[in-house]
Specification:
Elements (H helix, E strand, L loop, with lengths): L8 H11 L27 H5 L2 H16 L3 H5 L4 H6 L2 H15 L7 E11 L2 E10 L2 E4 L8 E5 L2 E5 L41 E4 L2 E9 L3 H7 L10 E12 L7 E4 L3 E4 L24 E4 L4 E11 L6 E4 L11 E4 L2
Antiparallel strand pairs: 1-2, 2-3, 4-5, 6-7, 7-8, 8-12, 9-11, 10-13, 13-14
Length: 336
């Protein structure tokens, strides 16, 4: 698994136990070393100034960890710094956190305890040590500090890393392999941008089927009517609202989550636009936003909205399933 995911000391310890075939109580995990820090232009705040915000830091660390274990990927992603987000797309972040669910299943606040045991300030950074419990099992990063650190950004605490590729799913299992490495790349309609399927055509991937039902290529008025505090697109941008149907097609009792965070868009500029990126969000009140948890055979409809430049043409919706390695599960659906 990528180095940074081990800063999630709770998941690191439990995953190390699970992957190693161990049973019973999780053992403490050792945080892997971080390569030499690369310089990031920043005017570091003084230690005294940072220390005055330590209560907020402790709350942020706990909220970040709990969001991860409760599968609150989008919420946890909001705790990443702007520099971190440049290195780690939302879809890659979700893919890494999905690994946690394989071993831990669904958790609630009552199942998770996080206690910050120490904070050290240096060069405008806060280095944190912590202990905690998951499902009553004690785990800890001991006396080690997390190699990733926290910084103040726009008046809030954010996670930062010097790892150049913190969410590289191609090396998510530490040796460049994944459970799907022996699966050949998919071919046919919907498996490449050049073969994006038409509106109304269903694509299948891993354990889900997805169909675009309709598209509003300029949905500003729709979004405005749905909110008491409507947002507006940035100058030169538009809101694209897509109506979707999703169906779980797995087997047994396994559930899948399908939400707007599984989708992104691209167009003639070959740039990827995600629903929660800076300058790509449609605000907090997207009507009937897609968010469903489904057993096999279950279906749900809902909307996904993304903001992008009006200059983009040939729009394509990208679907990334909950478990997708090396982009083998990705599917493309044409929007015009």
């Amino acid at each position: 698994m990528r180095r940074w995911i081990f800063i999630l000391f709770l998941s690191g310890a439990l995953l190390a136990s699970a992957c190693g075939g161990g049973k019973g109580k999780a053992s403490p995990t050792t945080v892997l070393a971080t390569p030499a820090a690369t310089s990031t232009p920043r005017a570091p705040a003084g230690a005294d100034e940072l220390r005055s915000h330590e209560p907020e830091l402790r709350e942020s660390v706990a909220s970040f960890q709990k969001g991860i274990f409760k599968q609150g990927a989008v919420k946890s992603y909001g705790y990443l710094s702007a520099d971190f987000k440049k290195k780690c797309a939302l879809q890659d972040f979700i893919g890494l956190l999905a690994i946690v669910k394989v071993f831990l299943g669904d958790l609630t606040d009552a199942d998770i305890q996080v206690d910050v045991t120490g904070v050290r300030y240096e060069d405008g950074k806060a280095f944190v040590s912590a202990t905690g419990k998951v499902n009553g099992e004690e785990v800890s990063n001991g006396s080690e500090e997390f190699p990733e650190y926290w910084v103040r950004e726009n008046g809030e605490w954010k996670v930062m890393t010097d790892d150049p590729s913190p969410c590289d799913t191609n090396t998510a299992f530490g040796n460049g392999s994944s459970p799907n490495d022996k699966t050949p790349a998919a071919t046919g309609p919907g498996t490449t941008r050049a073969e994006a399927v038409a509106i109304g055509t269903t694509v299948r991937t891993v354990d889900a089927e997805v169909t675009v039902l309709s598209v509003n290529l300029d949905a500003r008025d729709v979004i405005a009517r749905a909110s008491s505090f409507p947002s507006t697109p940035e100058a030169g941008n538009r809101y694209v609202l897509v109506r979707l149907r999703a169906k779980a097609v797995g087997s047994g009792e396994e559930t899948i989550n399908v939400a707007d965070s599984n989708f992104s868009m691209t167009g003639s500029g070959n740039k990827v636009y995600e629903p929660y990126g800076d300058g790509t969000s449609c605000g907090f009140d997207v009507p009937d936003e897609l968010n469903a948890k489904l057993f096999p055979g279950g279906e749900a409809e809902g909307n996904v909205c993304i903001q992008l430049p009006r200059s983009e043409r040939g729009l394509i919706l990208i679907f990334e399933p909950q478990f997708s390695f090396n982009n083998k599960g990705r599917r493309y659906l044409a929007l015009e």
